[in-house]
């Protein structure tokens, strides 16, 4: 029974998230990197820390030329969203993330474009689908070491004010789901404080 449940879960993943295979071929784009054989073990880079660390770091240049440093956001909630322009669920959730970023002073959003795209092409895309939160284009061959490499998109990490990962979402997420994580953590903290006095 357990293996049946796992098999059904694995089959449902492609329905909720995009993969690189979902990307439309671009006439002027470089060919996609070849997938490693299924039995090949990924090469370990001892210089990089293991992904999924307790307090991830993130330093990236944003599309507007600024530097984004997750460490400067301590004391605030941060939504780190891995996405791509070719991913339909990603595009659907962009207005949700933008609204959350605009409506909640205690939450910041940063979009990490996980695809090979030129900055000019990204700017043209964002002119048609504008958002107010910062966007950075990641190097898909050297993604941020402290976050797990996305196996599908969108992939969203909710970072708590102390810098720890409070929750991860695979697939599209709504502003209500993200707000529930933040608000639920606040209620839990108040309950713990009330119980400790």
Amount of beta strand: 15-25%
Number of helices: 4
Main sheet characteristics: 5 strands, mixed
Q: In order across it, which strands form the biggest sheet?
A: 5-4-3-6-7
Q: What would the CATH topology be?
A: Glutaredoxin
Return the CATH class.
Alpha Beta
Biased composition (Low complexity): 28-50
Organism: Lysobacter brunescens
Keywords: Cytochrome c-type biogenesis, Disulfide bond, Redox-active center, Signal
Signal peptide: 1-17
In short:
The protein is of the alpha/beta class and 197 residues long. The chain has one domain (52-195): Glutaredoxin (3-Layer(aba) Sandwich), CATH 3.40.30.10. It has four helices and seven strands, in the order αβββαβαβββα.
Q: Which features characterize this protein?
A:
alpha/beta; Glutaredoxin; 17% strand; globular
Please give a structural write-up.
By secondary structure, the protein is an alpha/beta fold. It has 4 helices and 7 strands; from the N terminus they run H-E-E-E-H-E-H-E-E-E-H. The protein has one domain: Glutaredoxin. The strands form 2 sheets. It has a 5-stranded mixed beta sheet with strand order 5-4-3-6-7, with helices on one face. It has a two-stranded antiparallel sheet with strand order 1-2. It starts with a helix and ends with a helix. The N terminus is likely disordered. Pfam families: Redoxin (PF08534). It comes from Lysobacter brunescens. Keywords: Cytochrome c-type biogenesis, Disulfide bond, Redox-active center, Signal. This is TlpA family protein disulfide reductase.
């Amino acid at each position: 029974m357990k293996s049946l449940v796992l098999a059904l879960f694995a089959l449902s993943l492609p329905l909720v998230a995009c993969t690189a295979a979902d990307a439309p071929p671009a006439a002027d784009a470089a060919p996609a990197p070849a997938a490693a054989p299924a039995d090949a073990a990924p090469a370990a880079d001892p210089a990089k820390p293991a992904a999924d660390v307790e307090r991830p770091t993130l330093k990236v240049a944003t599309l507007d030329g600024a530097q984004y440093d997750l460490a400067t956001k301590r004391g605030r909630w941060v939504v780190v969203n891995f996405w791509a322009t070719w991913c339909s669920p990603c595009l659907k959730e962009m207005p949700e993330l933008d609204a959350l970023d605009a409506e909640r002073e205690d939450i910041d959003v940063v979009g990490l474009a996980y695809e090979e795209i030129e900055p000019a092409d990204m700017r043209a895309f964002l002119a048609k689908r504008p958002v107010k939160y910062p966007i950075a284009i990641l190097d898909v061959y050297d993604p941020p070491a402290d976050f797990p490499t996305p196996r599908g998109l969108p992939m969203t990490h909710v970072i708590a004010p102390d810098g720890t990962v409070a929750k991860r979402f695979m697939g599209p997420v709504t502003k209500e789901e993200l707000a529930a994580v933040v608000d639920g953590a606040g209620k839990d903290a108040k309950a713990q404080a009330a119980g400790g006095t």
